[in-house]
Amino acid sequence: MTTRLLITGAAGGLGRYAREGLKGCADVLRLSDVATLSPAGEGEEIVRCDLAEREAVDQLVRGCDAILHLGAISVESDFDALLQANILGTYNLYEAARKAGVNRILFASTNHVTGFHPIGETLDHLSPRRPDSLYGVSKCFGEDLSRLYFDKYGMETACLRIGSCFAEPTNRRMLSTWLSPRDFLALVRRLLDAPKIGHLVLYGVSANRDVWWSNGHADFLGWRPQDSSEPYRHEIEKREEEPSDGVRYQGGRHAAAKLPG
Ligand code: NAI
After folding, report:
1. What is the C-alpha to C-alpha distance for residues 181 and 27, in angstroms, rounded to an integer?
2. Backbone angle region of 9, left / alpha / beta, with phi > 0 → left and psi within -120 to 50 → alpha
3. Among 82, 140, 144, 34, which residue's Cα sits nearest to residue 15?
4. Is 115 within a domain?
5. 261 is a domain residue
6. pTM above 0.90, yes or no
7. Residue 113: its pLDDT value, please?
8. Which of 113, 117, 198, 225 is the most buried (most CB within 10 A)?
9. Does some domain include residue 234?
10. Is 186 in the pocket of ligand 1 (CB under 6 A)?
11. CB of 53 shorter than 6 A to ligand 1
12. Average pLDDT in the 222-245 region?
């Protein structure tokens, strides 16, 4: 079992699910964010840290044996902000992990690394990346960096291309992209427990009817999503009109929007 699991971005939406849902996955959860976190409970440590600050990240990572790296700007933003949090922040984290001998990182990537593929195409881990936003490009950097650290140092990473992980799907796109918090947590547990993951790229999506992504190569994990967006379909389709032509791409609004700046 993992002794000390570091969770970055622990104050965010997924971080809160992870804090609650991963209790017992490790002797200690070290919870970190640049934002304020509520005080540590039993089996928890709180470390406030800006991922862009290299020495602070070195200290943050020391003593951990696995990392769930959620900390990032999680939406499209201007490049300078993404540069600090997502690019420099991820580099600092991998360097710190290398120095501290941390051998397993679960990196929260995004479906927006392939968001310029049209709806109707089924993608897998070998499909070319077609980022739909600067945010998507910043996550491509993290995926490539993790590959470099695997090839050079053997550090294992799972790049989780998360679809839309929220309590419920709330729009038509999410009927395809929804990842339930329960399925997310089950996936994280599998990735922590698997004896070997190597460098793995997979999509985080529940067992929805019209999924755009295939994870066949990751069957060995034994992760079988339990939830589906189907019970929400009727309400969503009643409320929301058919998507317009502007949303022909898997990335939805990200693909349709102008770049910032
Ligand atoms: P969120 O925006 O709710 O949480 C991200 C957290 O990272 C925030 O608490 C924020 O304070 C922290 N953070 C930002 N910059 C930081 C910095 N420089 N140093 C330290 N902490 C910093 O995002 P959410 O939804 O929890 O997503 C978590 C991760 O999963 C993100 O990396 C996001 O890109 C990724 N993701 C999430 C999806 C979702 O459906 N929720 C979909 C695809 C990817």
Report:
1. 22
2. left
3. 34
4. yes
5. no
6. yes
7. 98
8. 113
9. yes
10. no
11. no
12. 90
194 falls within a domain:
yes
Tell whether ligand 1 has an atom less than 6 A from the beta carbon of residue 159.
Answer: no
How far are the Cα atoms of 82, 159, 229 from residue 144, in angstroms, in the given order? 16, 10, 31
Q: What ligand 1 atom has the least distance to the C-alpha of 112?
A: 43
What's the pLDDT tens digit per position in 135-181?
A: 999 999 999 999 999 999 999 999 999 999 999 999 999 999 999 99
Q: How large a percentage of the chain has pLDDT more than 70?
A: 98
Q: Mind telling me the catalytic residues?
A: 135
For residue 8, how far is its CA from the centre of ligand 1 (angstroms)? Answer: 9
Q: Is residue 52 lining ligand 1, measured as CB closer than 6 Å?
A: yes
Domain carrying residue 188:
2-256
Tens digits of residue pLDDT in 96-121: 999 999 999 999 999 999 999 999 99
* Ligand 1 site, residue 12, Cβ cutoff 6 A: yes
Is 45's pLDDT higher than 70?
yes
Segment 2-26, tens digit of pLDDT: 899 999 999 999 999 999 999 999 9
- Is residue 33 within 6 Å of ligand 1 at its C-beta? yes
- Cα 132 to averaged position of ligand 1 atoms, centre (Å): 18
Say how many Å lie between the CA of residue 165 and the centre of ligand 1: 11
Atom of ligand 1 lying closest to residue 50 CA: 19
Number of domains in the chain: 1
Q: What is the CATH number of the domain that holds 7?
A: 3.40.50.720
Q: How confident is the model at residue 246 (pLDDT cuts 50, 70, 90)?
A: low
